[in-house]
Automatic annotation (TrEMBL):
Residues 36-67 form a coiled coil. The keyword Mitochondrion applies. Keywords: Acetylation, ATP synthesis, CF(0), Coiled coil, Hydrogen ion transport, Ion transport, Membrane, Mitochondrion, Mitochondrion inner membrane, Transport. InterPro entries: ATP_synth_F0_esu_mt (IPR008386). It is found in: Mitochondrion inner membrane. GO terms for biological process: ATP biosynthetic process; proton transmembrane transport. This is ATP synthase F(0) complex subunit e, mitochondrial. GO terms for cellular component: mitochondrial inner membrane; proton-transporting ATP synthase complex. Belongs to the ATPase e subunit family.
């Protein structure tokens, strides 16, 4: 088996620095996007409630018109 190669301390430092910078960037980006996504989910939930209410009313009207036609 081949023994492990010695890695330069500069390369090690650079790799871990890039990892740390990426983690910090990801956290900041997540904190920036989280409120936007929450607002979009809230708006979508309100629209879904309105859409379901309209569908329920349309269904009731269709049933009422069918009953009046049959009578």
């Amino acid at each position: 088996m081949i023994p492990p190669v010695q890695v330069s301390p500069l390369i090690k430092f650079t790799r871990y620095s890039a990892l740390l910078v990426g983690m910090i960037y990801g956290k900041k980006r997540y904190d920036y996007l989280k409120p936007i996504a929450e607002e979009e989910r809230r708006i979508e939930a309100e629209e879904k409630k309105k859409r379901e209410e309209l569908e329920r009313i349309a269904k009731e009207l269709a049933e009422a018109s069918e009953e009046s036609i049959l009578k």
